[in-house]
Amino acid sequence: MKIKVAKWGNSLALRLPKRLADDLGLGPGAIVEVNQDGTRLVIETAPRAKFPRYRLEDLLAEMDRLGPENKPKFEEWGILPSEWPEEDWSDVAPKKDLQGAKPNRRKGAKRGTTGRRRA
Q: Can you give the pTM of this predicted structure?
């Protein structure tokens, strides 16, 4: 396969066709090893980290194998208690006398008017 070398800033770049990148498991941000072997350029992909996959059946079987004496204690994760903060929030809290108050308007002014004429 022949690929054209392109300029990328002060460096040179090779653009891999999608099919080749997919076959190698490469995507944006992937790390590869690049070596020079005479006039050959060798690009090696890093081995992919394999994450363990668990099936619910296997996890339940392991719990049965360990027995009820190794069962973890129950922890309630529902509604967690929260306490009111001790700090003073009066500078950001709404004032009691302003709650539900209507905005000040000039007498006879219509909503959305500023009293200035448009140019």
A: 0.38
The tens digit of pLDDT for each residue in 95-104 reads: 666 555 566 6
For residues 24-60, one letter each, b for 16 or more C-beta atoms within 10 angstroms of the residue's C-beta and e for the rest, the string is: eebeeeeeeeeeeeeeeeeeeeeeeeeeeeeeeeeee
Phi-psi region at 108: left, alpha or beta (left = phi > 0; alpha = psi -120 to 50): left
Nearest to 32 by CA among 16, 50, 11, 12: 16
Q: How far is CA 6 from CA 2, 11, 16, 29, 99, in A?
A: 13, 9, 11, 19, 64
